[in-house]
Backbone:
């Protein structure tokens, strides 16, 4: 009996990305609207895996996630404690290529950025040049 094929996570993501992009209506050239945590998690997973990269991707990811976390819910310009907990749980120990820029964009866009978010942004900025 033959053993099952082993898949690399990045290969699986590459194979699934077109279908998931279509299913979630995500397009880096489109509006950047994210409508759910599942969609946001998918985008963060793509960034973390390296399946998507480059300046166009990074700009799309940041616009989509800042829009979802800061501007799609009321009160605008604020992040709820539950959204903050969820977001920090996803990214605190799993840095991705776009995470430093995403963290700074969130701090910049929020009316009153939570201290935990600012600390994480500074932590991920260490050793980076402008």
Residues:
């Amino acid at each position: 009996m033959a053993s099952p094929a082993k898949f690399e996570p990045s290969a699986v993501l590459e194979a699934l990305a077109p279908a998931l992009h279509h299913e979630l209506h995500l397009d880096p050239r489109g509006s950047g609207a994210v409508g759910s945590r599942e969609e946001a998690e998918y985008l963060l997973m793509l960034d973390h895996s390296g399946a998507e990269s480059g300046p166009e991707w990074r700009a799309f990811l940041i616009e989509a996630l800042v829009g979802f976390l800061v501007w799609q819910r009321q009160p605008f310009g604020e992040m709820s404690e539950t959204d903050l907990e969820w977001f920090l749980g996803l990214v605190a120990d799993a840095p991705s290529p776009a995470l430093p820029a995403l963290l700074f964009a969130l701090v910049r866009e929020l009316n009153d950025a939570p201290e935990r978010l600012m600390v994480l942004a500074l932590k991920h900025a260490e050793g980076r040049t402008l």
About this structure: The helical segments are 9-24, 37-49, 55-71, 81-91, 99-109, 115-125. Confidence is low (pLDDT under 50) at residues 1-10, 22-31.
